[in-house]
Amino acid sequence: MKSQAEVFFKTNLCESLQQKKVVIVGCGPGSEEYLTYQAQQEVRMAEVVIGPPRLVRLFAEINGQVIYPAQNIADTLKDIEQQLHNKKRTTVLVSGDPGCFSLSRIITERLGPERCRVIPGISSVQLAAARLCLDWSRSQVLSVHGRPVSTIASKINSNNPLFIMLGNNLSELAPLLEMTMRKKKVYLLQNLGMESEEIHELRCTEDFHQNISSAALLVVK
Predict the structure, then answer these.
(1) Is residue 58 packed enough to be buried (19+ CB in 10 Å), middle (13-18) or exposed (0-12)?
(2) How far apart are CA 217 and CA 144, in angstroms?
(3) How does residue 190 score in pLDDT terms, banded at 50, 70 and 90?
(4) Spatial distance between the Cα atoms of 219 and 188, rounded to a whole number of angstroms
């Protein structure tokens, strides 16, 4: 038999979740097979779905209005706030997992965590670790999107696996990675979870001067 405290906690948790109007859904790496059941349920029940076309297309059943994000993040936040003001059941789609370099952080900072609910997804980092059979519990995750290469230099000599989420340019990391390859293995993983998935170990300097996908990351181990 449940105690009064357990019943009170569960009741208040349910009420709290029901009051939250904006649901941030992690859509995984970009293929339907990696969507969670909960993600699909939230999208199906939403009155308004806000997300880019490539994520919207992942869902077989969308009953609500679809709004594509503005190019300006500030305008997208205004759209979300407007739906919150209209008391619409609103779901915002983000790639990967909302907790890993995601728009989710900006949304929760703007609205406050009490006005949001987050549905986790499978991040490219998790999938990369699975592909390489790595335990990533002690790993570090970095992003070079809009960040100087120097932020990586201090981390790359760690004994733990390092996941580096890339932009479209690999060559700017070449000097740092060329030295790293003498002691460690460096893998380039692109389009994980999709038909165009590629995984290569980088072995020579020429490997750093190739065109890469916008959905790419490095693993150093």
Answers:
(1) buried
(2) 10
(3) very high
(4) 7
